[in-house]
């Protein structure tokens, strides 16, 4: 790893209630100013819908915000128009064209302030990562570098193969946002503006269409999605991207990095939706690298920002999912199985399992599989600790290699090409690649799901004809992983991915076909490591330095979280239950608390039985006043209901139920 930049630290002065004009609305922002650096400094903007005054600012981002500010930046946290303490109505999420225009106005306003140098950067994880990209695509004057992390490029990409993520969107994110939008700001200005903004947001909740319903109503890439995707080819500013193999958007990250024509850098680790200095399998010294990037482009400091590889990535070892079992490596371009001149290994589905295509010379596969809608409960990337997937695999259509004589490396975007016949017109096709260890343990490595009617693209519905064979290609999530000597590579095929994929209503079957002339295939970019695994070069990414600031927010007291899977054996019903909660201490109020309980259930042979139910509670304690939001949400294919109740000092001030 390149040498660390020299770090300086100072005290911070916090300016709450900064008002920024954006069109007809006013964005509310907070400025973190370092003391002792002079009157004019570059500014870094975090623009997001997660409430600058409480939920994720003090609940997650505080150490990073403070780190950047203490090293010579005005850091600005700003609520999206229509969220938090900003005026306006947020009628729909992920509206990248609108949010890009808003971000442009904010950047240009910041560049004109006497306390900035006119040089602005943006950073953020997840939603604020998307606003980095959408704002950069709008090309505001003054924007000189961005650092988007763990984000997609918006638009229909949020649909994950054409089906709603019933767990992530239906159970977690939309109910969370419903609660956040229903609460008043925790930072009360003396003139009472906070109350007027709060009433406006509640009125929008009352009159508008719930965001979850909008997603359910637009299952294809129709007019609703027009303008919501980000044209990343318009981005001209230096971009430092971060993602994780177990996050939702590593493929989008690698895609936008390849399209941006500007200085760029990407880090992809074994992480879920968490910053690199907080990773489970490995944690790195990330914050100084972020500082190095902005110092080079916003302060003209001579450092090593441009000496890093274009892409730094983690290669998993020893089965995957284990702490500190892997290596950091580098590449200038990311391999895809569909690209020319990419070294790849191709395995055919054969009567003997997975074999190299040149070994498949006789026989054929014609096997029927009845969809089991409980499959997926053990095959979740994003839950905290990887689980053994055998419970899913035994209920799937599986093909695997013999024990490997030599290690096989996957580095890139693989593909699965299947010849299928379906008994129903619009099945979900789900594939998973699994590492099977010599003792039989099975670990999810990469996967993909795709609704069959979307196989030619998301903008039109092209169902299959029941009883007629069709071809379908699935592009696997990117990954770098070594299947060790003695391990097996397993391809698991199913018609479900519970609880994340909301199934179509009909139960059905697949018939899988493969023969030497037209085999069903698994293609993995990579190579065989003969005799022993060896890489040309590995990198040292360092360990997080917590001597000045912790990696976790010092304002948070977490509650014990849980992830539980159960199976009821008489009716063959699978259930998943998670719980999470935290208390966030606030400098301008007492606290905010968050608790969310999510449950999902489905019967193996009845896709219409699947539902996700969540209860979300948020409370803001502000001196002698207590605001509380209670949101329940039940999502299913046939009926979805959201209820929201808001109380102020135990008196109900808002209560509404929406049914679709």
UniProtKB/TrEMBL annotation:
Q: From what organism does this protein derive?
A: Halorubrum trueperi
Note the InterPro entries from the entry.
Answer: AB_hydrolase_fold (IPR029058), CocE/Ser_esterase (IPR005674), Galactose-bd-like_sf (IPR008979), Xaa-Pro-like_dom (IPR000383), Xaa-Pro_dipept_C (IPR013736)
Tell me the GO molecular function terms: hydrolase activity
Is Membrane a UniProt keyword of this protein?
no
Highest taxon of source = Archaea
Which spans are transmembrane here? none
UniProt keywords (A-Z) are: Hydrolase
What name does the UniProt record give this protein? CocE/NonD family hydrolase
The keyword Hydrolase appears for this protein: yes
Write down the SUPFAM superfamilies for this protein, in alphabetical order: alpha/beta-Hydrolases, Galactose-binding domain-like
Domain spans labelled Xaa-Pro dipeptidyl-peptidase C-terminal: 291-523
Sorted alphabetically, which Gene3D superfamilies does this protein's record hold?
A: alpha-amino acid ester hydrolase ( Helical cap domain), alpha/beta hydrolase, Galactose-binding domain-like
């Amino acid at each position: 790893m390149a040498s660390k930049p020299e770090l300086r630290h100072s005290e911070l002065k916090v300016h709450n209630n900064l008002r920024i004009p954006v069109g007809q609305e006013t964005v509310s922002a907070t400025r973190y100013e370092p003391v002792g650096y002079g009157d004019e400094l570059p500014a870094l903007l975090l623009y997001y819908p997660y409430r600058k005054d409480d939920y994720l600012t003090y609940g997650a981002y505080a150490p990073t915000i403070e780190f950047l500010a203490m090293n010579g930046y005005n850091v600005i946290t700003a609520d999206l128009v229509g969220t938090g303490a900003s005026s306006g109505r947020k009628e729909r999420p992920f509206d990248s064209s609108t949010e890009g225009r808003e971000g442009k106005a904010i950047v240009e306003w910041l560049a004109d302030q006497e306390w900035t140098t006119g040089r602005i950067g943006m950073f953020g994880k997840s939603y604020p990562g998307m606003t980095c990209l959408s704002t950069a695509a709008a090309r505001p004057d003054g924007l000189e570098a961005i650092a988007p992390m763990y984000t997609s490029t918006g638009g229909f990409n949020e649909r994950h193969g054409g089906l709603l993520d019933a767990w992530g969107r239906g159970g977690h994110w939309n109910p969370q946002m419903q609660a956040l939008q229903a609460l008043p700001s925790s930072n009360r200005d003396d003139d009472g503006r906070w109350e007027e903004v709060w009433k406006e947001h509640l009125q929008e909740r009352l009159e508008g269409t719930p965001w979850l319903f909008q997603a359910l109503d637009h299952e294809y890439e129709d007019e609703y999605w027009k303008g919501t995707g980000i044209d990343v080819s318009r981005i001209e500013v230096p971009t430092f991207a971060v993602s994780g193999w177990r996050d939702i958007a590593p493929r989008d990250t690698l895609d936008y990095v390849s399209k941006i024509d500007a200085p760029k850098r990407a880090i992809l680790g074994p992480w879920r939706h968490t910053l690199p200095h907080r990773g489970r399998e490995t944690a790195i010294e990330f914050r100084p690298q972020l500082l190095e990037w902005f110092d080079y482009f916003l302060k003209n400091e001579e450092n090593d920002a441009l000496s890093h590889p274009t892409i730094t990535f983690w290669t998993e070892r020893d089965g995957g999912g284990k702490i500190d079992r892997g290596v950091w490596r580098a590449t200038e371009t990311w391999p895809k199985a569909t690209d020319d001149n990419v070294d790849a290994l191709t395995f055919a589905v054969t009567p003997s399992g997975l074999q190299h295509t040149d070994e498949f010379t006789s026989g054929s596969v014609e096997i029927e599989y009845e969809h089991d809608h409980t499959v997926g409960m053990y095959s979740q990337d994003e839950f905290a600790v990887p689980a053994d997937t055998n419970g899913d695999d035994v209920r799937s259509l599986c093909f695997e290699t013999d024990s490997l004589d030599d290690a096989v490396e996957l580095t890139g975007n693989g593909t699965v090409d299947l010849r299928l016949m379906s008994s129903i017109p619009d099945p979900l096709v789900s594939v998973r690649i699994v590492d099977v260890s010599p003792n039989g343990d099975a670990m999810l490595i990469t996967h993909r799901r795709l609704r069959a009617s979307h196989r030619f693209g998301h903008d039109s519905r092209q169902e299959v004809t029941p009883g007629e064979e069709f071809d379908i290609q699935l592009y696997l999530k990117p990954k770098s992983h070594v299947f060790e000597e003695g391990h097996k590579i397993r391809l698991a095929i199913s018609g479900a991915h519970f609880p994340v994929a909301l199934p179509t209503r009909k139960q059905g079957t697949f018939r899988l076909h493969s023969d030497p002339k037209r085999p069903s295939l698994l293609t993995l970019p990579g190579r065989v490591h003969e005799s022993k695994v060896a890489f040309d070069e590995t990198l040292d990414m360092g360990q997080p330095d917590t001597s000045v600031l912790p990696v976790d927010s010092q304002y948070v007291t977490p509650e014990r979280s849980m992830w539980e899977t159960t199976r009821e054996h008489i009716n063959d019903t699978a259930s998943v239950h998670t719980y999470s909660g935290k208390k966030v201490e606030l400098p301008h109020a007492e606290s905010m608390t968050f608790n969310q309980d999510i449950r999902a259930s489905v019967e193996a042979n009845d896709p219409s039985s699947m539902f996700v139910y969540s209860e979300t509670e948020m409370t803001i304690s502000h001196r002698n006043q207590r605001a509380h939001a209670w949101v329940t949400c039940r999502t299913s294919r046939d009926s979805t209901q959201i209820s929201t109740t808001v109380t102020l000092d135990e008196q109900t001030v808002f209560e509404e139920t929406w049914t679709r």
